[in-house]
Design goal:
209 residues; alpha+beta; 8-stranded mixed β-sheet; 37% helix; 22% strand; globular
């Protein structure tokens, strides 16, 4: 039951504007490492984003850019099982940041606790991280990258226990999910049905969040 949970916060609507990342590593069902890094996106901060995550331009001044931080982050991704809540967002932030920095994609499988919970906890009125966490009695400070990553890890552990599965790959298989993958040149989405591999695109600003 080894996996790594990841959460990004962004400075604005561009997916390349990561301003923080939280990482939590789970080994044999126990949290063994956790850390948050602030990232200087060298982009403007939207007031709406600041109101959500409370990170300001002053806080990231002097912090490493994503390109500078990537050698530190890479070992947490390469050949690991990566988990995020609403992974489509966090994986797109990772791709856009890598594209913007002209860095190669690492190779790893990834999973989404949001999609897991939509099927496993279908009776819930919402499947947002705070709602699912509250269902399991998990308290945390929402929209803090480390707190979100830690809550995601705890949610997945609860789902694995509830479904009597030993790892996220087996959980995905049991519920008919296609495992997401990132690899040199592209990625395949984590999804409820078979999907097509997607090619790696050159960087272009994303105006949607």
């Amino acid at each position: 039951m080894d996996f790594v949970t990841v959460d990004f916060e962004t400075a604005n609507s561009s997916r390349s504007s990561a301003c923080s990342i939280g990482i939590v590593e789970v080994s044999q069902g126990q949290i063994v490492f956790e850390q948050e890094w602030l990232i200087n996106p060298n982009q403007h901060f939207d007031p709406m984003n600041i109101s959500i995550h409370k990170i300001t331009p002053a806080m990231v001044k002097g912090q490493p850019t994503f390109q500078e931080l990537w050698p530190t982050l890479l070992p947490f991704f390469e050949n690991k099982s990566i988990v995020a809540h609403n992974a489509s967002f966090d994986m797109s932030v990772l791709r856009y940041c890598l594209d913007h920095a002209l860095l190669d994609y690492p190779a790893f499988d990834y999973y989404c606790t949001y999609l897991f919970s939509k099927k496993i906890l279908a009776h819930m009125p919402s499947h947002k991280l705070n709602v699912i966490s509250n269902h399991y009695g998990i308290t945390f400070n929402h929209h803090d990258a480390l707190e979100d990553a830690r809550a995601t890890a705890k949610v997945l552990l609860k789902l694995l226990e509830q479904e009597e599965q030993i790892n996220p790959a087996e959980l995905a298989k049991a519920h008919g999910y296609q495992i997401g993958q990132m690899y040199a040149g592209g990625y395949t989405s984590f999804s409820a049905s078979a999907g097509k591999s997607k090619k790696k695109f050159a960087f272009r600003p994303n105006t949607r969040k």
